[in-house]
Amino acid sequence: MAILKILTEEEANDILRKTSKPVTEITPKIETLLNDMKDTLIKAGGVGLAAVQVGILRRIYIIDAGVEEDKHEIIEFINPEIIAAEGTQEDVEGCLSVPGRRGMVKRPMKVRAKFQDRNGEWYEIEAEELLARCIMHETDHLDGKLYVDIMSRELFDEDDGEETEE
Ligand code: ZN
Prior knowledge:
By secondary structure, the chain is α+β, with helices and mostly antiparallel strands. It has 3 helices and 8 strands, in the order H-H-E-E-E-E-E-E-E-H-E. The chain is globular, with a radius of gyration of 15 Å. The protein binds zinc ion. Zinc ion (ZN) is lined by residues 95-97, 137, 141.
């Protein structure tokens, strides 16, 4: 187990802008990566973390689905794909790779995604609200996109009463 260094836009924009490659085989190295990403995400107090954010260009991310209830419930997404999306929501987003900033972002209200777990099994998940937002945000990371590209407006300290969620 180890805490990994989270790359920021400022220091490593070129890496964060790359498209991640599919995982073809879940090796012990990938399992170690997943374990280390979990420790790193919890330490950082974030909701989601993509492998590219720790410098590994593979289609992997993890989301802490328990964060709203103040417990950790990590879901590991390997080779995730969005298969359906509907509705819209607009809320605050932040990103561990864009520290100190936050902005309003429009996302689908509901998404359906498929993904593999670390045993290679395929699953489908139906998510809404915060989880749907996280899945979209993290999937964007795998394609080299950051929320700051699509935010409708940036929030500053004077915009109080709103909380950073990711
Ligand atoms: Zn992010």
